[in-house]
Design a protein that fits this description.
- The protein is α/β, with parallel strands linked by helices.
- The chain has a domain at 5-101 and 172-243: TIM Barrel.
- 36% of the residues lie in helices and 27% in strands.
- The protein contains ten helices and twelve strands.
- α3 (86-95) links the parallel β5 and β6.
- α2 (59-70) packs parallel to α3.
Length: 251
């Protein structure tokens, strides 16, 4: 059985870490370097760092953050935000990223997935999938929840996996920052059609939600608010999950 992973997710806005609610209303939660070092020391399996600035994005700012984090963080980490060409990804790998996350470009330029996978290996490409519930079904959105996409969930998963995605990170937009649990129906639907590992994101409010995600088939659980608000950390999450028989990557 594959070992499950606990992955703190960090959102970068203007050089600072923020937390959002339904992809909106960012509020400051700290310094990216200090937070990443703490997570590394607390036995996180990996980190995800996403630059969510849209209207005032500076790629060099993300590269600088990755370089500084890599000096103090000793777990693998994934970096995303505005990656639409391999030329956007290369400086991030050179700065210390282990993987990159592609989201919006996966709809309009899936060749970027192939290009990155061919140069760095498909294990280095994560595709983010952001979903909103509309009319009783799931609708995909890009551009941090601002652009509605016409493609069906299963068709998009098939396309990005065929292009070279090594992993998927799926999140429900309306559950972001709410801390009421992952969308398990969405998660099960993704797991059922995905031949690559799936990271659950958006919704964790306590450790039982992590167990629910793993029971639903997730390979990893990404958490933001769970670790930002309250006295929780990856070590405590792993102790809880170990007591419930969840196989973990390391503890």
């Amino acid at each position: 059985m594959l070992k499950r992973r606990i992955i703190p997710i960090e959102l970068l806005w203007g050089g600072r870490l923020v937390k959002t609610r339904a992809f909106d209303a960012p509020r400051d939660v700290g310094d990216p370097v200090k937070s990443s070092k703490v997570y590394s020391d607390q036995d996180a399996d990996e980190l995800v760092l996403l630059q969510i600035d849209r209207d005032d994005r500076h790629p060099e700012q993300l590269v600088d953050a990755v370089q500084r984090i890599a000096e103090h963080c000793f777990v693998p980490f994934t970096v995303g935000g505005g990656i639409s060409r391999i030329e956007d990804a290369a400086p991030l790998f050179e700065a210390g990223a282990d993987k990159v996350l592609v989201n919006s470009a996966a709809y309009r330029n899936p060749q970027v997935i192939l290009a990155i996978a061919e140069r760095y290996g498909r294990q280095a490409v994560v595709v983010g999938i952001d979903v909103l519930t509309e009319g009783g079904d799931y609708v995909l959105y890009s551009d941090r929840g601002r652009q509605r996409e016409a493609v069906v969930l299963e068709a998009h998963i098939a396309a990005v996996v065929a292009a070279g995605a090594g992993e998927l990170m799926v999140q429900s937009i309306e559950r972001d920052g709410v801390m009421e649990g992952y969308d398990l129906d969405l998660l099960k639907r993704v797991v059922a059609c995905s031949p690559v590992p799936v990271i659950a994101a958006a919704g964790a409010g306590h450790f039982l939600h992590l167990k629910d995600a793993f029971d639903a088939g997730a390979d990893a659980a990404a958490c933001g608010s769970l670790f930002n608000f309250g006295d929780n950390n990856p070590l405590r999450a792993k102790a809880f999950l170990k007591n419930h028989g969840i196989p973990l990557k390391r503890i």
